[in-house]
Amino acid sequence: MLCNFYIFIMLKSILQTIFYFFLIIIVFVLSLYSSYLLPYPFENINLVIIFLIIVLGLYGSGNIVWAAFLFGVLMDLYSELPFGIFTFSLTISFLLVYWLYYEFFANKSIWAVATIAVVSVVLFRIFYTIFIIFNGSKIKLTLFTYYGWELLFTTILTFSLYFVLEKIFIRFKLLK
Amino acid sequence: MVTKSKTATFFTIFLVIIFVVGFSYFHWLDFIEKPLISIVDWSLKPVNSIKAYFKKTDQPLTTDDRNVLNELKQKQKNNKTNIQILTEENIELKKQLNFFAKNNFEHIGAIVLSRTVNPLATTIMIDKGDKDGVEIDNPVVVSEGILIGKVVKVEDNRSAVRLINDNTSAIGATVMNNDRSIGLVEGGYGLGVRMNYIPQNEVVTPGDVVISSGLSDAIPRGLVIGTIEVVDKQPHEPFQQAVITPATDLGYINLVSVIIQKK
Fold first, then answer.
1. What is the ipTM, given to two decimal places?
2. Same domain, B170 and B243
3. How confident is residue B82, by pLDDT bands cut at 50, 70 and 90?
4. How far apart are CA A94 and CA A51, in angstroms?
5. What count of other Cβ atoms lies within 10 Å of the Cβ of residue B53?
6. Which of A117, A156, B19, B236 is most buried, taking the most CB atoms under 10 A from its CB?
7. Residue A2 has pLDDT above 70, yes or no
8. Which residues 6+ apart lie within 8 Å of B192 measured at CB?
9. Is residue B247 part of a domain?
10. Is residue B127, in this structure, part of any structural domain at all?
11. Cα distance between residue B60 and residue B92, in whole Å
């Protein structure tokens, strides 16, 4: 009986991992679609960060760092830049964001989520910019226009989606 | 995670990243990367059809056109988009064949898979790579020899192409004016294309055609880049600049040809 219980727990865990893995791939594909199909400046919406922040806001799990790691690997596979730039920037940013969230913003309020959305985009782009400078890329002022659009739209969308999703999750008792 | 030492967590994650980057560099993770790429590439297949659909609906139509279109939509509801895409591809391929028939370039046809994930770079992924003979710096053209960019990263079965409107793109160019002015065509984060370093004493006028000069590595002379739209000439500066309208819509590219080195 106990053995069956452990097998059930293990199977559940494996199925959950597979589910999260494919969910990450789906979100990544959607982010590629949005950057390709949406017109300027909406193409700068960062769906990956929106997804990670909302999941962090709803569940507050440290697994978000490993999800960020997998997103980073996928982004590196579809980037013209040397492998590792996105993996490092995204993972380290979300490790710092998770600590920040856990220490200061764990009340799950919508303002806390909006604040960590801003912090995560800023941290991610700081690491990214440092790496592309080391890679020998020229930095022009127009780059910061793109950063600005990304920050604005990502924060607004995170705020709005979290506002709606939190209500749905509470209504259907999906939050632990 | 937070209850453990933060330093230990940080270094653990840092080491994992270093290992993954190192393993990827030596192609030891190909058995994971290739299935992942196949899944994502498969998911991206409809992207060009969707783009084509929206491009079509952007065009202004008269009332008669709308009526005819509605009738056609009813009759050909299922295959309309496919026919449109095939027709466009046919026209594009004919143009490319026509160009290569006139010029003695060795080339490979390729399909655009997607733009790369980085919205700050204007690059696209194509479905031909090292195994097909594509090399870094190979020029990429569409239609009848319109230069759209060059290859910047090559993998076994796919490559990344940096478009001419990318911030880091710089291509030697010639203006087809009386002076045959030379300069450098540079992009700016997808916001436009400029030609810099045009000598101040030479006459450049809007409408002049800009072609590749042949002075950049691996890019032959004569590939069309665009036309001069605005000239920015300041008397106190040694060079003049010009804004260029690319000869093709760089946001809507489905089929390309990569000009490769003859062996």
1. 0.80
2. yes
3. low
4. 12
5. 15
6. A117
7. no
8. B165, B243, B244
9. yes
10. yes
11. 23
Partners of A36 on chain B (C-beta within 8 Å) are 47, 51, 114-115
The verdict on B15 touching A (C-beta cutoff 8 Å) is no
Q: Give the whole-angstrom CA distance, residue A142 versus residue A50.
A: 23
Residue B258 in any domain: the answer is: yes
Q: Is residue B188 a contact partner of residue B205, using CB atoms and an 8 Å limit?
A: no
CB atoms within 10 A of CB A34: 16
B160 touches chain A (CB under 8 A): yes
Q: How many whole angstroms separate alpha carbon B76 and alpha carbon B178?
A: 52
DSSP for chain A reads -HHHHHHHHHHHHHHHHHHHHHHHHHHHHHHHHHHHHSPTTGGG--HHHHHHHHHHHHH--TTHHHHHHHHHHHHHHT-SSPTTHHHHHHHHHHHHHHHHHHHH-TT--HHHHHHHHHHHHHHHHHHHHHHHHHTT----THHHHHHHHHHHHHHHHHHHHHHHHHHHHHHTT---
Residue A18 in this model has a pLDDT that exceeds 70: yes
Contact at CB, B119 and A79, closer than 8 angstroms: no
What's the CA gap between B227 and B245, in Å, rounded? 5
Mutate to test the interface with B, among A23, A47, A80, A99 (most CBs of B within 10 A): A80
pLDDT band at residue B52 using 50, 70 and 90 as cut-offs: low
The answer to whether residue B59 sits within a structural domain is: no
Residue A120 belongs to what domain range? 2-171
Dmax over CA atoms of chain A, in Å, equals: 65
> Are both B26 and B73 inside the same structural domain?
no
Sign for the CA dihedral angle at A21, A34, A148, B116 comes to positive
Nearest 5°: phi and psi at B28? -80, -10
Region A31-54 average pLDDT = 87
